[in-house]
Design brief:
Helices cover 53% and strands 0% of the residues. With 79 residues, it is mainly alpha-helical.
């Protein structure tokens, strides 16, 4: 296991659809988040801290998750 690095030493880019970026930008207005990136880092850290895969912690049935994935794919969020 590699040693943990401080969160601000090394950064990488994460590509998301422009429409999602714009929606997040509107969503965070007036919340105290300074950028979509700051919000995304916060949200992703929350997911990692839970120690569970999103599918495991969602509370949705397999059929509901399949339907959700199909809807997200139709909207262009998933390949």
């Amino acid at each position: 296991m590699s040693p943990k690095r401080p969160h601000n030493r090394r950064k990488v880019s994460l590509k998301i659809p422009a429409e999602l970026y714009e929606n997040l930008s509107e969503l965070i207005e007036g919340t105290g988040f300074r950028s979509v990136t700051e919000f995304a880092v916060y949200a992703l850290r929350d997911v990692v801290a839970s120690g569970k895969r999103p599918r495991e912690s969602s509370g949705y049935s397999g059929k509901e998750m399949q339907s959700l994935h199909e809807r997200l794919r139709a909207l262009g969020y998933l390949d």
